[in-house]
User: Which sequence fits this backbone?
């Protein structure tokens, strides 16, 4: 056995952290082989340069990149600027105008500011696929395209469905998975990670690397993180997200609003605590030795501290408890259940619950900064609240326990 | 009407020559419109740089290029060297190794030597698609590929069949029709011509030109020329061809061997005579005023003169007639019918017909230069003759009327 290689036990240890919370690994045998060599692996994750405003859903994979960093591997944060500067060339959509070089670099800085709250800046390579794809000639593209068949691309779910239903697929759409695969060739990638919706494209990378004489990369897919509702995937458009740029009180309060089940899911996918510790906490809760609210506070503190600071996290806990825990809410406060939508806008539920005599009074009080929701000042009378449970406070004395349902 | 435009009658005159012998025009209305402007049109025909050894089948389209030249249009003889220098990148075949730049240029010279026997060198542009395709970037290719759909490519007969039968189609094969189409954009092509098997690719050019804001080209397809047998398309591998580099006696003799029906077909597709004159000859033959052999001699003379010289053509006629017409063949010469294959090799039919006592004698006489077939010396005892009728002469006195059948 060469001096640099790892013992099976050392490989086991790495595998335990790597496998934590993942959706799929293709395949374990290959990855063990790569790890056993004892050399730092090249880990690649691609990011869209157009959307650098992250929420916790995005951080699941970044957290996994962090795991690889902790194990001494080399992480490439790859910004897919090549396709972005082309824009959507099919002309069927103008929602994605081409980005300028300046915009790409600016977005990259925004990304860095956010992801370096998780990743170690010293051992993270931020790269751009325009570096090699931009230098490719037509002949290079044809050579790349020769390495994959139409039939295999047609196996991709969305292509198969669209072809069957006569929804046009432009030929260039066939080139994107190949370009992404070529990124792995250019970077000599050992492991590529992505969401479960990326499985097909990641597998193309394995094949294309073989075509170019490289050892195929391993594939790790990460699950989509459930949003605050515990059902749908976390997304901005569903309003069930925790943005990592949100103020400390929001991150803390929203984390406290998740169900106990979802809390353990978030622990597994987002926390830096080891699984041993998490499992001990879980057992303690099951056995009644630990209150679930205390466990949730731990998680809320960890996440708030990560994206702000330990001090900001402590302050957020204090503020939160001032409203929720320290007797701030009278036992006999009215309760209201409403549906997400027009009914879950402050103007609507304040009047509906009888906290104000009219929508006019509600609007006036909101403008006077009298409304707080989960301890955060609210100045917007019209934006509907997403599903969840809220403590609404109007002025010093008027309280409402609000539940917004789907 | 602008001064430069043509009258409907002038357009009619051009259309008559253009439409002669073609398989399909897409479409007449568009072409009339282009012609009516009275400006020289850009005519494009693509040629494979790997196979510059032409036979009459190839000259059908070159003849049509000549027609356009006679009408004052600008003809581009486009050598598709871009794809050829890539070779067959799929790795599934090594029958087509990439050509070097030197080979491409050398082949281009070979082409010129041949096609300038038909085309006017002064008004022929020889171009290479590597000039623009070689300069394309990956982004350019993606932009091009965005202009066409997978579904439309799947309509191409061979793609549809292969996909249905699970025979792999490499993705780069989808890029070839698009590259060919882009040639029309680069050249601002008004009319592209090709064989009937090219119809699909030529139509892609129309679409891609529109995508790039150009007026779509018109498409003219030329029929595949029947070989000497009058049934299958002329091809080297079938042995039913007249190569334009063959000696005068071969071109003359092979032309004389075609059926009367096929003769008129060759007249229409290959002769420089006007259709009026051809139709008058045809009528004269029908009415018995002209012997079909005389008409065939005219054609044989014209084709032989084109690829050699009028003098060489006259010499070939004299030699031919010395054997066939001037009593060279005794009335009572034996006749033999055999099948194409082993039986149609000289060694076989000479012995079978009893012209020699044995295959050994046949071989010896052939080596002594005693065998002529249709007036041409034959030194090869083993190569089977293709289907057709032959006058075989061994020494000064032994004759055989040979018919080789399929």
Assistant:
């Amino acid at each position: 056995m060469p001096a640099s290689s790892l013992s099976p036990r050392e490989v086991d240890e790495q595998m335990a952290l790597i496998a934590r919370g993942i959706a799929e690994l293709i395949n374990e045998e290959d990855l063990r082989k790569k790890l056993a060599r004892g050399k730092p692996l090249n880990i690649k994750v691609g990011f869209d340069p157009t959307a650098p405003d992250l929420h916790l859903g995005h951080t699941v994979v970044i957290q996994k990149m962090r795991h690889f960093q902790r194990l001494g591997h080399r992480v490439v944060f790859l910004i897919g600027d090549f396709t972005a500067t082309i824009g959507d060339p099919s002309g069927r959509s103008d929602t994605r105008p081409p980005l300028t070089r300046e915009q790409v670099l600016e977005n990259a800085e925004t990304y860095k500011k956010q992801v370096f709250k998780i990743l170690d800046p010293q051992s993270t390579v931020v790269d751009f696929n325009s570096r090699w794809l931009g230098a490719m000639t037509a002949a290079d593209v044809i050579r790349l395209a020769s390495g994959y068949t139409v039939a295999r691309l047609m196996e991709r779910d969305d292509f198969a469905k669209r072809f069957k239903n006569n929804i046009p697929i432009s030929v260039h759409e066939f080139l994107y998975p190949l370009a992404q695969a070529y990124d792995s060739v250019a970077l000599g990638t050992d492991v590529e990670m992505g969401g479960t919706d990326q499985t097909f494209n990641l597998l193309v990378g394995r094949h294309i690397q073989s075509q170019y004489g490289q050892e195929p990369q391993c594939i790790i897919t990460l699950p989509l993180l459930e949003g605050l509702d515990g059902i749908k995937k976390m997304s901005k458009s569903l309003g069930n997200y925790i943005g990592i740029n949100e103020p400390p009180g929001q991150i803390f309060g929203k984390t406290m609003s998740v169900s106990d089940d979802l809390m353990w899911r978030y622990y597994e996918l987002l926390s830096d605590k080891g699984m041993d510790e998490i499992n001990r906490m879980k057992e303690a809760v099951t056995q009644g030795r630990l209150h679930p609210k205390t466990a949730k506070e731990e998680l809320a503190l960890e996440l708030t501290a990560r994206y702000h600071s330990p001090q900001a996290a402590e302050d957020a806990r204090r503020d939160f408890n001032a409203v929720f825990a320290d007797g701030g809410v009278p036992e006999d406060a009215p309760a209201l259940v409403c549906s997400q939508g027009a009914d879950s806008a402050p103007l609507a539920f304040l009047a509906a619950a009888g906290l104000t005599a009219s929508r006019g009074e509600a609007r006036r009080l909101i403008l006077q900064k009298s409304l707080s929701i989960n301890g955060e000042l609210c100045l917007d009378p019209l934006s509907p609240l997403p599903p969840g449970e809220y403590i609404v406070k109007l002025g010093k004395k008027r309280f409402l326990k609000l539940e917004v349902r789907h």
Observations:
- The interface with chain B takes residues 82-83, 85-86, 89-91, 133-134, 136-151, 153-154, 159, 163, 166, 168-175, 178-179 of chain A (CB under 8 Å).
- DSSP finds 18 helices and eleven strands in chain A.
- The longest helix of chain A spans residues 171-187.
